[in-house]
Task: structure prediction
Amino acid sequence: MNGMLDAGRTLVTESGDKITVERLFGSGGQGEVYRVRTPHGPQALKWYYPQLADTRQRRILESLIDRKWNDDRFLWPQAIVIDPHSSRPGFGYLMDVRPSRFHDLPALFRRDKAVSATTLRTLVTVALHTVEAYRTLHSKGIAYRDINWGNIFFDPKTGDVLVCDNDNAVVEGETTQVAGTMDFMAPELVRGDQGARPGIQTDLHALAVLLFLLLMNHHPFEGALALRIRCMDEAAKRRLYGTHPVFIYDPDDTSNRPDPGEQTTVIATWSVLPKILRDLFTETFTAGLWTPSRRVRETQWRDALSKVLDAITVCGSCGKQNLAEPGGPPPDCWHCGHRVKLPVRLRITVRRGSLSTARDITLAPQARVYAHHLVDDPDRHDFTAVVGEVTEHAQQRGRFGLTNRTDGAWTMRRPDGSAQEVPPGRTVGLKPGLLLELGGGVEAVFFD
Amino acid sequence: MPWELLEGSVTGVGKTHSQDSCAARPAADGGALVLAVADGHGAAAHFRSDLGARWAVEEFTQSAEVFAREAVRLGSDVSKWPILRAHVRSLPQQFVHRWRERALLHESNAPSDGATSARSLKELEKRLPVYGSTLVGAVVTARLLACWQLGDGDIVLLDDTGAAQAPLSTGPDIGDETDSICQREAWRAVRTHWLPFTGRPPRGVLLSTDGLSKSFAERSGFLQFAEEVGAMVAEQGAAHVRSRLTGWLEQAARHSGDDTTLVGAFAAPVPPAPPATTTPTSPATWED
Result:
């Protein structure tokens, strides 16, 4: 189906590169995305609907492009494109083509086969990467302003994320129009409160909605009250998301609980969500609705998600991954109902000056220790930087150990005081009480 | 709205009654069209699926009319398109909820298993497959098109050259398994398509139950049929096509053995064209 630009149309970037339109990828809320041919290879072009291609949007784009951001988690605007042959005003921008390994969230909600590789571990990883991506933006003073489920794409195998549609991002404090849709907007924006402006504080609300959708596969305000609405028009949405938002698991208001017949997924996912995350969602969707300063910040999400990720365990009866409360009791398997036996855990202690930080990793089969475990405040969780990996003994099935995946030797110290070197590629049995020196002053102890 | 509507449905060969249902009608005071087809599953396990299909069309239509009014009200303001797009995504929860309420009420009042004592909600829910159906729907305004699909069936768009595209097609069907409005959280399985008319708007939109596409040996034959129907509407007028539609659907139903339903909306041709002598290739030609 054709859009604003016909195939074969020639456009130019502001630096003079000629680009040729190949085909329409799809239509969005603000414009259309095309596959184009450029001197540097195939790229994607977002072309704005004419009414939205105004000087304000162009100024935002120029500011973003000037930043020359080179972060692989974002499809960042690279160059403004204009049509030299058209008398009508209009423009768009070039960005990289989204690699096919990334899928959208609706595919997850529909349980598409394309995302069937998704596991609990990759899902929590996606949430963690999402938080870190927005934290990076916010730490540079940039508000995204339009966080929603259409802007995040994920790799079901690795949990990597790709943030698209970054062209609404502006420097915090800049006067801008409200962007986004009501279901992700902070209530004060939906209500149109005096002085309420989209910014980092309202991004935090949208981020929490996105995380809830990702982990719970449901919108946090769409419970029984939403199902009772017969005519879901603008006024009804304003009430649901702005004037009378009620978190479906508000501890003090049960009026909007999920319908047990129609909203079964969220009932199931909430029941197995570790308390550390349930508490954050409850805080941000109750107190944080009315007091923006009480919204959960990215670092809180990051720390909680990281702990939950490290506490994921595997059911010995059915082999399914299970979420567990970090440092808490063993869960009952969400799949087969059996009590999951917690495996040996590793407590890593990182010391910096007089401060020490400890974190626990559940050493389930295939669990890994990463470089980010060895620093007290990681800037980013990099799941390619593997330091150690739980492996099964080649001859003795059911016997597991931690294999050194670094280039340097570890030192193992037994409770009796004896020590032994663990060279790269060698494995240490998971015996409670054993201490490992991982280098850089980092120590780790196995414990039950 | 300068659109012509088509609507036709035939019962499968050897069947006592059709389990398909459909609607094609103006909405938003004539500013929009709502189209829908539903295919009740029909097997013994779904012996009330004719009711389920009818309710699916009716409840979709009611929810879609709300969207249509919003689309007409806000559609000329491009800055409101994200709101409309979000509405497209949330619509499935509404019509699936309404269908479910209606099916549960009916099952409670007229138990499909002949039960005479009151039953719990859980027991009633277990009977919902009796009413199982697919649903394919669309809303067309002067500014945009939105489509929804739950389970099998087809949506075909004809671009301004008359070429056919199936935006929600998921590839060849494998077996008879399909998503259904009776399944748990069926709204999750609804696929959506959103198309603002920024270039030349489509010439036509066709929705059909799978009885039609299955009557063709090849998918390309089905798409060619859609293109030829569109061409015939453009050349000979919708009234002429309406007069022949039932015959084509009967021919398709003979080949697929299934109930066969088609609704469509076609941009009314501006200049009257002289009658042409071509006819669409019948489904049988591709089947043979």
